[in-house]
Design the sequence.
């Protein structure tokens, strides 16, 4: 992954993320399809639990979804730069904890994306340093995230249409039943919801992968930029010292 350590614009980071995804798609599919399938199945169960309005099942299924995401990220970054599976799994667990501020306060928590990539990519991660540089390059991270999210939103309008239809049908049916109307959904709807949710989760997880790569390239660009700044400062300092001696 030495290629990520190069300064790029945020649009170039997105393009590089897509190119890396496209050139390694077969390796990624063969190396992580089990984790992706598990994520899809659990997502289907999450939808089923919300359809049955069971709070216990909702909580348990959401926790299972988080665990499956950790396994997915651990496997994904192991494919990127190698390493032990247990180490990557532990790093993915810590990265998930670091992602909480981002999900709670998305705009303020954007620098935590840099911390997540620091945790997953660097041999000796320094969360404090990564957070500081993340705030320093907030605009760069925001631009990369915003552009990639716009692209993902456009893709979801195509890939997730069956899921959107199922969720809308379920919501409209629940509203009607709350008003006293009988259920208008077919008896096979729970199976349809589960199958559509599982398949959509499986496909969308792989499609979203290029966005993860884009943020990895953004992290590499930030580190490269910081290294360049430090080198220039050191050179300027050495020149000043030389001139003072003369």
Sequence:
């Amino acid at each position: 992954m030495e290629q990520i350590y190069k300064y790029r614009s945020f649009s170039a980071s997105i393009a590089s993320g897509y190119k890396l995804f496209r050139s390694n798609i077969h390796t990624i599919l063969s190396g992580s399809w089990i984790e992706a399938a598990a994520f899809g199945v659990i997502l289907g169960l999450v939808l089923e639990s919300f359809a049955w309005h069971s709070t216990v099942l909702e909580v348990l299924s959401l926790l299972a979804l988080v665990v499956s995401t950790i396994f997915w990220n651990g496997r994904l970054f192991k494919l990127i730069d190698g390493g032990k599976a247990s180490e990557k799994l532990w790093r993915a667990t810590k990265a998930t904890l670091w992602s909480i501020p981002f999900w709670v306060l998305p705009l303020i928590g954007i620098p935590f994306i840099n911390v997540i990539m620091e945790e997953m990519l660097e041999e000796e991660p320094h969360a404090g340093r990564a957070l500081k540089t993340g705030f320093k390059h907030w605009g760069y991270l925001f631009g990369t995230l915003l552009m990639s999210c716009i692209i993902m939103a456009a893709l979801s309008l195509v890939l997730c249409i069956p899921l959107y239809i199922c969720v809308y049908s379920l919501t409209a049916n629940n509203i009607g039943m709350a008003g006293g109307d009988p259920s208008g959904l077919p008896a096979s709807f729970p199976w349809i919801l589960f199958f559509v949710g599982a398949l959509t989760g499986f496909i969308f997880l792989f499609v979203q992968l290029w966005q993860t790569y884009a943020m990895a390239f953004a992290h590499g660009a930030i580190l490269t930029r910081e290294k360049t700044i430090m080198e220039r400062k050191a050179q300027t300092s050495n020149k000043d010292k030389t001139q003072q001696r003369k």
Q: What stands out?
A: The chain is about 85% helix and 0% strand. Residues 32 and 75 are 6 Å apart (CA to CA). The chain has a mean pLDDT of 87. The radius of gyration is 22 Å.
